[in-house]
Amino acid sequence: MSFFEKTPKESSFWVHVEAFRWLIIRSFAITIVIFIVVFLFKDFVFGQIILAPARNNFVKYSFLCKLGIVLSMPELCPEIQELKIININLASQLFVHLSMSFYIGLIIAIPYLMAELWMFAAPALYKNERTPAIKSIFAFVVLFFIGVLLAYYVIFPLTVNFLGTYQIDKSVENQISLNSYIDTFLTLILMMGLVFELPIVAYFFAKIGVLKNSFLKRYRKFAFVIVLIAAAFITPSTDIFTMMLVAVPLYLLFEFSRLVVKKVEQKQSI
Q: How distant is the alpha carbon of residue 259 from its chain centre?
């Protein structure tokens, strides 16, 4: 064999490197295309999506008011003070436009990115491993977007309404900066998207034997209390209905994770 001739193992390695390189290129290209589209639709993206929860005509508030009328419970209709968001840095609005367009483009591109990852990894999997892998990828995408939607329609509006109107004294006026609003928006949206990956994490920990259903079942009451505390912190109002809007999905997420762990244990015991 000559010095420049590659062994089959070396050749296979460089084939995988080339495939991964094209995966990166395609993923980057798709993300950039979506970024450009989002960037061009600035008025809709910021006016109807990102800044909408700061206004008193946001769809969630309208829904609660209508629900209050139907249930004859006017207290469900929240008193929302529309926030005035200000900009204090010369280039902030341009940088926010660019960064938010990129982040939204990246979030929208997640299903495609996961599909690319699947196509890259699939040839290395055995036949009996492919179905669980597909289910895991599908669950990852679905759970992430459920978390994002819950944060956008429930948690972020409640948070921004409370923090934006909270005053230690009437003489201290709230003036919410654009950067502060955007940072809170992104943090909650991405955090809830990741929190909703808990069943996926529980699945893999159960597969390697680190997490047991008996452990989760034993501490179920503690989990319920923690969820209630978290919901009370996120929704610091006396409205039990609003608090339940946050607490119920979070607790159901815990129970779903427990069922995932239980199912893994049942399969492993067969």
A: 21
